[in-house]
Amino acid sequence: MSGRETLAGRLLVPASEAGGGGGRPVGAPGAAGAAIDGANRVAVERMAAVRPLLTGVARAGDVIPGLEPGVLLHAGPPIEWQRASGPLRGAVIGALLYEGMAADAAAAEAMVARGEVRLEPCHHHSAVGPMAGVTSPSMTVWVVQDASGGRRAYSNINEGYGKVLRYGAYAPDVLDRLRLLNEEVAPLLGKAIAAGEPLDLRALVGEALHMGDEGHNRNRAGSLLLMRQLGSRIVRAAAGAEQAAAALDYLGGNALAVLNPLMAACKLIADAGHGVAGSTLVSTMARNGTDFGIRVSGLGDRWLTGPSPIPEGLYFPGYGPADANPDIGDSTITETVGLGAFAMAAAPAIVTFVGGRPEEAIAATLEMYEITVSESPHFTIPQLGFRGTPTGIDVRRVVELGITPRINTGIAHREPGVGQVGAGLVRPPMAPFVEALKASAAALGINA
Amino acid sequence: MSGRETLAGRLLVPASEAGGGGGRPVGAPGAAGAAIDGANRVAVERMAAVRPLLTGVARAGDVIPGLEPGVLLHAGPPIEWQRASGPLRGAVIGALLYEGMAADAAAAEAMVARGEVRLEPCHHHSAVGPMAGVTSPSMTVWVVQDASGGRRAYSNINEGYGKVLRYGAYAPDVLDRLRLLNEEVAPLLGKAIAAGEPLDLRALVGEALHMGDEGHNRNRAGSLLLMRQLGSRIVRAAAGAEQAAAALDYLGGNALAVLNPLMAACKLIADAGHGVAGSTLVSTMARNGTDFGIRVSGLGDRWLTGPSPIPEGLYFPGYGPADANPDIGDSTITETVGLGAFAMAAAPAIVTFVGGRPEEAIAATLEMYEITVSESPHFTIPQLGFRGTPTGIDVRRVVELGITPRINTGIAHREPGVGQVGAGLVRPPMAPFVEALKASAAALGINA
After folding, report:
1. Which of A65, A384, B94, B126 is deepest in the core (most CB within 10 A)?
2. Rounded to whole angstroms, how far apart are CA atoms A167 and A160?
């Protein structure tokens, strides 16, 4: 089925009426498509108006609304402990050890199983976290604020690649490093930020796309741009040379250092597009390691979910597909606003990390224009004549064209306690988009 | 004329004999083309074997052979003062003021006119300098050494864009900044380098090409990679926070900071290919603001020159083509070894600075494969499936195909004392390549 025969087709404005472009035929009632188009335009305009500024760092429990003692935030849609994947379990265990709430892994698991710990999505608390995304009250988070509206979003501190908490590792050395980053390095970065103008993250990622980043799996340039902006401020804010050197080595040595503040920036942008009545734009995509879930601008706060797939990619030596957990993390917030796989044409060198060939990087971005309603005015791709990245995923187009969003991702080991085993590419399941389409139609009084 | 009718054609191996590829028909004597091909292979293999390491900085007069008091080095082929262009005159005046050898511009010019100052090409002293390239004994230079052979090359400290000595400016603020960079910032960078392993510049520029640099006009990523490698070393080597902050701000604030050490690295690579009997490869391309000149591997130390053309490009506000000096600088050493315009496909965002469209960046690199004999094993272009950059300019191909090398460049004001007015693209004149071809033929006993 296609065109007016399909539900998606009936909700799309026909090309002949849309003034050219990618519209699809619309059935009765003819006004539905135009109304949705209008709502989607409002949503992307609100997204484009956000200018996220990195204003500092803070203790998560002090700034994240509702992050009380006994609450842990995690990536993706809500999930019960019984269904939680290995890397999420590992990260929860690690966070409880980190908080001093449990003496060992068994005790930590038992606490959660007894219901003494409340697991809630980051996304319900103005936060986002890559991979397991587990954020506990005493961790440090980046604070990102919209220059226009004042809204804030938060993300934890990136630990780098490999054996790290967000991939489910929780050995003593993992926790020691986490403590060093959260208690020494990040607070100094916060002081450095506070010592001058806040950092314009929209401008930063725009420049990084011109330097071969895509803002999700490849953030080498962005992390160095962060180092450039903070370098001398760090030196002046530090208690001494060794403290400054550690912070500089963190920014210089972790090519993902900027990912987490960028994700918080993307969260601000995506949230601005949420809540427009009648809009069929995706305002959240996230995975908890078991389920992939979306939220849609016009559908309120409900999640539409399906099983999270296993990525295809390149594995670290000694690991293979049998070790892989299904896809996990809030980092798909980057794709949600037109970065990551959507901006892959800007980052052909990424194929050395996630697999594929450079031509496929161009093809990936070109395909995403098919399912999006606008092109970013802020994020442009030199390789495509400075065309704006595809932005604003329309569930109508996803379903009508049978094209799910592309996602660049890391791969976690399926067992708790191991960590990262690779990186790759993945497509979410179609079911949540179909469900979202039906719900959007129902909200407009149109029956499937 | 083309093919066996031309001199170039008679010196090229015919495609049928060359085992496929871009060879041209060869006339009698049939062995000439093969002998030249063999010599050129030796030359590019020697170039590929060079691994330039940044080992530190030094006072120019202490390390550059023959840079005695009263000698000033300059970019390009040799030139008499009477024929020197405005920006070269301006930089010479500035250097004499900097050295305390003259009290004012008039006195400086008079000294040179009286023959009290000896002007010699950087290239005759194992050195290279961008734009005017003027290097005086008390300036600081980067020291780059070949890990394999121990040879060294030198380049001065980059001052950034705009009103700077290398573009012919010499006002007191220009000289103050030059003094700060040479006497405070650069020595600290030298200490930082000396405090650890030397920096592998070949690896650095290889990575920078994957981050949207081309290694000549666009060195944003490379300069940040330098900052990343030196950041914590600078902090530890500095006398205090302010000194460290100034050095970090220099590396972070000057997107050309890495250009000069890279040029010295390219000089080492190019020189390694020089001096192979029978080779028709270009081992130097350089401009003094009046003449463009080349040297050829098999032709000894003679320069073959022609008039330097005026670049086409983008001008800073308030300036236009009427203000432009003919092309100037040793920075074409980057194109000589397969970087700069030859690697432009890796750097599509450069068109915002030098003009043109991103597609033309790809076309520029593809065209340069036509006139080169190999592809770099170290510098690769993600956009072209990680193909090595075109390396080893063959004067036979340049003349036979009528394709001169492409060059990315800055544009200096034609009057001394002003500075940079833009950036753009340029092609050298054909005459020196024709002359080189004839000389190569003559050396082989073949008459034109």
Report:
1. B94
2. 10
